[in-house]
Amino acid sequence: MPTFSTYDGTELAYRTLGEGPPLVCLPGGAMRASRYLGDLGGLAAGRTLILLDLRGTGDSAVPADESTYRVDRQVADVEALRVHLGLERMDLLAHSAGGNLALLYAAAHPQRLGRSVLVTPTAWVLDLASTAADRLAAARLRAGAEPYDSAVEAYGRILGGADTDEEWDRAAPLFYRRWDGTARAHYAAGEHEQNEKAAEAYVDPGACDPLATRAALRRLTGEVLVLAGELDGNPFPGLAERIAAALPAGLLDVQPDSVHYPWLDDPARFAGRVERFLATGT
Q1: Is it the case that residue 191 has pLDDT exceeding 90?
Q2: What angle is formed at CA 90 by the lines to CA 33 and CA 54, rounded to 5 degrees?
């Protein structure tokens, strides 16, 4: 895998897939190696995906200072990648918790972005976060048959404080449209792809000032697509709409019958929608 040295000397790795104009991709997790993004439902057919392993994940090195896992301190890593790639402006895609990093990057470097895609993003850096009630309400949309009834019960226990690996295993079907072999393998891989210690630092409350971030984002001229899953609870479509509305050129799209990984739920629809947006801004 190609690597580059970021601002503090940490060696970061990235993978490239496909052909066409470059699209820098930031994973979620938080702090999950980028491998789980795959080829984003076939998006690599028309784009060169540049999939960054955040510091301390995948093939990227562990930093000497673990406080640099904090999301705001990784903005400089994204900028270092842009410089390394020799891009004056770049298109950017971020998934889930990676949405927070993308938003902070946009606030710090608005002139360096073309079009951005936020896929089922969380946006606590804008003080826009789903509640436990929101998440449980979305989970209950799946009720009525197994394995979803048991998954809803497990998710309720998690949201009530029983945050154990066993309960997450029971709740896992809720985050996929189909609980098939592909979904099971995708979920199982997460155990080995996430840096849990780094994830705790990533979401440090001191990482951002939501009011200041919102103000800085007013300088962003590039279009942003916020792509939500119809059945997702984090964010649920109404919250995704508020995220899009917080951006000067934000656009909402809700993928039908999809959850948190829409490129797995309906690959053709996902890739086609993202490619159209990147090509036209609509």
Answers
A1: no
A2: 20
